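Working notes for the structural subgroup meeting. M.R. asked for a predicted model of this chain before we commit to crystallization trials. I am recording the input and output together here so anyone reviewing the notebook later can reproduce the run.

Input as submitted:
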Amino acid sequence: MNEEIGWKLLKELQQNPKLRREFAEIFTHEIPTILLQDKRVRTTILRAIVREVATKEDIEKTREHVERVRQELRQEILRVRQELSQEISRIRQELVKEIKALDEKFTHRIEELNQRVAKLEGQFSHFVKLFIAFNVPLLTAVIGILLKMILTP
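Returned structure, recorded in token form:
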């Protein structure tokens, strides 16, 4: 009968974390006085504790893993830098190309405007000559008439 109760207790401890914690707390207070006298109990407790403790091998494996991750990260950063550098170079080339195209466009437009201004200057020069050509005879005639009016009584 006692064995049956023991198995029921073990099953309940496995299924109920709260009960298991309470039992462990009580159990750990009694270890020095009762349980450490039994070699099998000490061995079981030590094995359970050792499972939770990191070994030198664990630390070395972790260190190796961290170093691998560090190397992978460095390689990834280098790859991203190279991609970024290539992208910047490509954009720079496109920008230079666009600036040259705009420069050519504006240079052509400025040349067209200069030609139009030169044409207007030439037309204005002809206009002034025509103005003088038509107005000098008129002015001469008016002056002649005025002189005749003043000089003839």
